[in-house]
UniProtKB/TrEMBL annotation:
GO terms for cellular component: nucleolus; preribosome, large subunit precursor. It comes from Mesorhabditis spiculigera. Residues 1-14, 40-79 have a biased composition (Basic and acidic residues). Transmembrane segments: none annotated. It comes from the Eukaryota. This is Brix domain-containing protein. PROSITE patterns: BRIX. One of its GO terms (molecular function) is rRNA primary transcript binding. The lineage of its organism: Eukaryota, Metazoa, Ecdysozoa, Nematoda, Chromadorea. InterPro entries: Brix, IMP4/RPF1. Residues 1-79 are annotated as: Disordered.
Length: 327
């Protein structure tokens, strides 16, 4: 309407917009809509995942029935193509029943243990002025290793500790080092003649932090050494075996496992229980849980200045391929 006709002109800015309340209500409705759509997406993803899992189980059952029907004529199972299964060939890989390896192992530093002439006696100590978590880790190691003793190192030199341990007829020495008040490395010295190994400690989880963990017993555990395939791997595995008595008490159903995967050694401590039928077993983790990485192996007892190193990990020179492993 024009001014001449008696009306008044209304500017665009005078047109009332939506109130604050309506804006707020619209934002809330939008957010609710987003929440609903997100929950729908999550539910759809779950349903798709369950459907795929059911289809996979169905295919597995069909293949199983087919293999049972064909018997010996059935096609063998395919080996999954992983980094581990496609590892580069190593000239030090040990074949089954290798006479040279068997001869060497019959006369190495660990032969007296495997001939049952020596009973393990383990001493556990730590870096000088160790903090609470390092002590705690030492106590958890003592729980796993039967008959192990713990002594405070204070400020005594490591070479002197090795001498004293030999005098007191200890067969193995474990020295736990720490950084930022947490255990981060371990020196493992086999007495009295060596060898000595240095490991980095990663992914340490104490027993109390493991969900549904059980209580350990005093029974001698069974020891599982898995996937140590090279000459170096055999030496490391034999070192670990020497920590435990050679006569496991199967009544306790306690198992200590050292599993090597891509040169990382996973330590696990379990107790197993048989089901009613006796065909299946359930595992209860006892703790602790940690991973070791070998950094060097030295002949003889601890001597970083004049000692002879059998093997040293030089990352930039040796780790040239993702599929090259040394244990």
């Amino acid at each position: 309407m024009s001014d001449d006709e008696g009306g008044s002109r209304m500017d665009v800015k005078d047109i009332p917009g939506p109130s604050k309340a309506s804006k707020k209500g619209g934002d809330i409705a939008l957010k609710k809509g987003r929440r609903i759509s997100r929950s729908n997406r999550a539910e759809n993803a779950r349903n798709i995942k369950m459907k795929k899992a059911a289809e996979k189980r169905g295919r597995q059952e069909e293949r199983k029935k087919l293999r049972e029907k064909l018997g010996e004529k059935a096609v063998p199972k395919e080996v999954p193509r992983t980094i581990e299964s496609t590892r580069e060939h190593d000239v030090t890989m040990v074949a089954a029943e290798d006479e040279e390896v068997e001869h060497d192992e019959e006369h190495d530093e660990f032969a007296s243990y495997f001939n049952r002439d020596t009973t393990p006696k383990v001493l556990i100590t730590m870096s000088p002025y160790a903090k609470v978590k390092t002590w705690k880790f030492c106590y958890e190691l003592q729980k796993c290793i039967p008959g192990a003793d713990i002594f405070s190192r204070k400020n005594v030199a490591l070479k002197k500790i090795v001498k004293q341990a030999i005098e007191k007829e200890y067969t193995d020495l474990l020295v736990v080092h720490e950084d930022m008040k947490m255990p981060n490395a371990m020196i493992f010295c086999h007495l009295p003649e060596g060898p000595t190994a240095y490991f980095k400690i990663n992914n340490l989880t104490f027993t109390k932090d493991i969900k549904k963990s059980g209580e350990s017993t005093d029974h001698y555990p069974e020891v599982i050494l898995n996937n140590f395939n090279t000459r170096l791997g055999h030496s490391v595995a034999r070192m670990f075996a020497c920590l435990f008595p050679h006569n496991p008490e199967f009544k306790g159903r306690r198992v200590v496992t050292f599993h090597n995967q891509r040169d990382y050694i996973f330590f696990r401590h379990h107790r197993y229980e048989f089901k009613k039928e006796g065909k299946k077993a359930a595992l209860l983790e006892l703790g602790p849980r940690f991973t070791l990485r070998l950094k060097w192996l030295q002949k003889g007892t601890f001597d970083t200045t004049g000692g002879e190193f059998e093997w040293v990990l030089k990352r930039h020179e040796m780790e040239t391929s993702r599929r090259r492993f040394f244990l």
